[in-house]
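Side project, low priority. Logging it here so it doesn't get lost.
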Amino acid sequence: MIIPLKDIAKMSIEQIKPPTPDFSMVPGVKIKKQIKLKLKDIHVDDKGNTARYHGTDPAQVEVLQKSLANGWDTSEYLPCVRELPKGSAYNHEQAYGFNRGEAFENLYGDEFEMWFDVVDCDDNALLDVRLVENEGLPKANNKEIDIKNTIMEKIRGGFLDEDEDSIAEYVDRVCVFRTKQSKDNIVRLVKEAANINDKFMEYSEAKAKRWVKNHSTIKYEFGGKIVNGKHTFLCKQGSAYRTYHRMIRQYLKTGNKCQVVFHVGRPTPNMTCAEKRKATLDSWNEGIKNLKVLGCDTSFMSVAGFLPQVVDVDQWHSLVKVA
């Protein structure tokens, strides 16, 4: 049904019956209600449209103006706002629908009143919502550079790990209708923008399990599982104190010896991977020495080695031994 825009504010939401966007692929997001607002009462950040690299698109706005002059198509999703904290200058900010908002204002001024969905989400999820919403609108699909921009915002905000696997998994999750070639292009753009070094592999526990499955001669299991008669634990550089505790608790429970498999963070200009491994091992040994001084038996605690992380240097079928 097409509704003249001059009449839309006079109608109830039950009369309009707009579709509800599906953000089920973004955890913790929901459309909580619909609300009628004047454009002047919404905070619009010109840089806020993170799903668009260059912000609103004048050509697209012009196309929308011509279309909207004929009325609102009730099969379309409503534009969307998010509630701002109490005490803010505005009660709501634009969540998505920036091009449509600009078209409304060009046509009818900032006194124009329109129905909006109200989304409930945090700052991290809002980046995902904007990306997913644009992916779902065939009239104005994201360009690959737009998606790269959103992913860079997530990385800078600490919402997404700066490694190829994490980026690829995110693209697969939110860009479900894109071809593999397009997804690969997006990952490549992000890697270039973030200066991600393909020659170094960072690990999560899931990625460590994939390394075992795809490469390792010894089929390690982590989380205290028995491997070659020893409870085996995965430990990232800087987390040794947790591993001591887990080993002690497991040894007291079963009497079996324990071993740790280390991995380190990405090298920096001030510290190579080899230096990070040595510092990790030195820290571990210092902790063992301190436990011995306190009278603890540490004979059941050993280091199995480090996960291979440096491509074309480390042997990928086995752990790296550090003296």
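Brief comment: The CA atoms of residues 56 and 99 lie 6 Å apart.
Revisit when time allows.
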